[in-house]
Amino acid sequence: MSHILSVTDLTQALKDVLEAEFPFVWVRGQVTNLARPGSGHLYFTLSDSGAALPVVWFKNSQGRGGRGGSGSGGRPGGEAIDPLTGEVLEPGRDVAAELADGQEVLAAGRVTVYAARGAYQLVAELVQQSGVSDLALAFEALKHKLEAKGYFDAARKRPIAPSPARVALITSPQGAAVRDFLRLAQGRGTGASIRIHPALVQGAAAPAQLAAQLDAVNADGWAEVVALIRGGGSLEDLWAFNTEVVAEAVFRSRIPVVTGVGHEPDVSIADYVADRRFATPSAVASGLWPLRADLMQAVDGLEADLARAFAAHLERKDRQLSELRRALSWLSPARRLARLDEAWVDLSRRLAGAGGRLLSVRRERLAAVVRHLSRAFGPAAVCARQEQVQALSERASLSAGLALAGAGRQVEVLAARLAGLDPEGPLRRGYSLVRVERTGRFLRSTAEVAPGDRLGVRTADGEVAAVVAEAEKGRI
Questions:
Q1: Model pTM greater than 0.85?
Q2: Cα end-to-end distance, the chain, whole Å
Q3: Domain topology for 158-290
Q4: DSSP label at 254?
Q5: Are 13 and 6 in contact (CB under 8 A)?
Q6: Check: CATH 2.60.40.1940 for 7-133?
């Protein structure tokens, strides 16, 4: 079963969705059904050919639409105070007072649900008369042109020096914005020099004066930062800051430029080109210099950090000094001699102990050798050795006789074989050896001699000389 919502729950859910999806929108339409109750709030409907949108413009927000009038919070002299920022506003047209049925307006605000009636509505923060629509188109055209030329590139924007000491302020010297800026600057930073360069901030002559003052500040070269400020107003009132001549001057400035033009929703062409944009003139002063109380607190914190760091530094140095003292005492000549003496005494003691242990070991080994020799060479051992010698002698005599008999028989065999190999043995049996004197070799064949060769014929008892008369095969 699906969950059943109460009317309140459903209305609240729709309110949450609408406010999340449309936190701030611009709507254009025709004013109808305008109502001015005694509370000072304005109720009307924005209509076009296809739809109608209920609008409520609360009294405390009406000062942002027209910059003046009874609905903006009064001050003596006709000044107005922005209820959102507390900034002093310049007097101008009271759009709330001039609003009438049939007017074409632009309304900016948030979409919400009025739960009591179960209807959605626009809670207006700003209302501008219809004449600004053409200006809005011109604004977008110039914005696209300069963006294409790279005037808005983040890479070209320069950092702003923290707590600048020299600031050139370009604004109207009679405006409330300059008074708010100077009042806030007095209680911030560590003291700075501010030069005001007066220029119109509204009207046909304003763009040329603003550009000329920007060029003059750069030519002078005194300032660290240029601040271009103006209080709030309608798009038409702020139009001088949406001109190409001012954008060109901001772009070519060699000194970083910050802007504070109008209020939080107001964004001008000069804001896009500047090195940094602040929401309001008061925000420029707050952004350039920190609160003096914050600086003093930061100094106190730094002082405490310095004291802790110095104490830690002294502690480290004290430890290092103690370590160096210990090292120095360890490396001193007297300490070194003492250590050498201690080492000599220790080595002497160890040497004496080692000598005693060595002598004891040697004595034990000598006693063991003596016992072994006693067992090996005592009377019983001598008798046993004599019996072994007698037995070995008998065995040696028997072995020697057998060996001599075998050797005699082998000599006889070898003598017989040697006698058979004796070359003179055949001579004793009647044979002769014939040597050819020409070759010096024994004659083995009739082919080895020729007639006339001298021969030596050797017999058992001498040698006979002979000459070959005729040599035939098988006969000499």
A1: no
A2: 155
A3: Rossmann fold (3.40.50)
A4: S
A5: no
A6: no
